[in-house]
Amino acid sequence: MVRIGSFIRAVSLCAVTIGFGSQAVTAEEAWPSKPIQIVVPWAAGGATDSVMRILAGEVSDALGVPVSVVNQTGARGTVGTNAVINAPP
């Protein structure tokens, strides 16, 4: 059986967390401000590429920002991974 004190602590923690979250959302600027680029580290035409292109269309419609898919193949995905790591923020 759950003790009342534990329940009150849990509810209080949730209330505080929600309070901090709502302040952070109101302080943010419009995002994203630039086009989004999704890097797929495998060849075009595969299952991953197809899913990412469908997802890019949906995200573009939802955010109102252009979303492009770029395929960077080679070294079992390492080339694409390095492209993401070295990309500007």
From TrEMBL:
Keywords: Signal. Coiled coil: none annotated. Residues 1-27 form the signal peptide. Belongs to the UPF0065 (bug) family. This is Tripartite tricarboxylate transporter family receptor.
